[in-house]
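Internal ticket - ligand job 125, FE2/S2 (inorganic) cluster:
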Amino acid sequence: MDEELYREHILDHYKNPRNKGALSDYSFKHKEYNPLCGDVLELFLRVDEKNRVAETGFEGHGCAISQASASLLTEYIKGKTIDELKTLTTQDILDMLGVPINDARMKCAMLSLKTLEQGLYAFSQ
Ligand code: FES
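stdout (structure tokens):
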């Protein structure tokens, strides 16, 4: 996809977020915010008996990049194991977004990953 298509892809995820909404039945949830702008993201994950993500959802508000990144991430992680989630990197999120992200927007882009990582950390203790 070229950059223009990626931009449309991001806007689509922002306007029509996938997996938006809290789960009532979850294995763990975690909430993070970006202190610079106040944007908030709360992630919910239900894990099955094989330690795979059976269901995921998120609540939050913020800029297009932070919310699209949450939508993309929740799509991506479905069916993945907890161990696979732990190997996710900044580059994986950048690849999902597909457009150049400057330093100022990096915290927006990584809010979803930070929320997942902190949630996983608490869940795995
Ligand atoms: Fe707040 Fe993007 S402006 S996360």
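Auto-summary: The chain is about 50% helix and 20% strand. The pocket of FE2/S2 (inorganic) cluster is lined by residues 34, 37, 39, 62-63, 65-66, 108, 111 (CB under 6 Å).
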